[in-house]
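Review form for a predicted model. The reviewer records the input and the model, then writes brief findings.
Reviewer: anonymous (R2)
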Amino acid sequence: MRLCRYGEAKLGLIHNSDMRDVTQALDVLPTCRYPLPIGDPVITHLDKLLVRANEIAKDMTSVGLKGLPFLSPVANPSKVIGAPVNYQKHIDEVRGDAALHHDNQIATITRAGLFLKASSSLVGPSQGIALRKLDRRNDHEVELAVIIGKTANNVKAADALYYVAGYSIGLDITIRGPAERCLRKSPDSYSVLGPWLVTADEIPDPNNLDLKIEVDGEVRQDSNTRNMILDVGQLIEFASAFYTLHPGDIIMTGTPEGVSPIVPGNIITATIGRVGSMQVKVRAA
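Model under review:
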């Protein structure tokens, strides 16, 4: 199934090229009082919500997807986790270009570890990318985004997919420079998620998905998730050895080779097989 958020925090169920409004299904979520529980409530109660959404969808009118203002399908992740240099060809291109490495030591992911992006950097495709530090290079990075569905701690790779709620397309936007990744990748709008969440049952093998990015119609990145150094299960094992993962947490699984600059006025089209495609406009902050 495919679940989206759009407009003024409405909820939609995607079927083929149409959407049906199932915002009423949010009524199944429990009322919370302070202190709020950790995690995104929609993802925490996803199974129950989808049952109700299917019931509601039968009586709702279909709407075409074109022009729908898609938001991030996850509203409240406790954290957004990044996987640096998780494709060998991307490591090679970074090591070979001073405009990318800025004299930083480029270690493999097993040595470099993971990094956190501010949850405030998260937007949906309709909200666009608002570039900061225009005197510096800002790059696009297309990534498979894994959305955690169940609390996970010290999970083994062999069991990891059990903890996945679904998948989405992620854009990890990056300001180049010598500063720590968590700073350069955390400005507002520098984490784009969308256009919807595809439930895990629809993607039994996330480690064999084509992914591509075009900027103004020009293909910049074109690869497959089978080229990841650490696959989805291994990334969840790695992350959950350091952090407790909560429902709604997002793991950006890394980007392949072909990263390049974006500037205000660009239109990015990102596509991942079995997930979909999204278009994102770039502007100045």
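Findings: The first strand starts at residue 2 and ends at 6.
Further findings: The chain has two domains: 2-69, 80-284.
Recommendation: see findings above.
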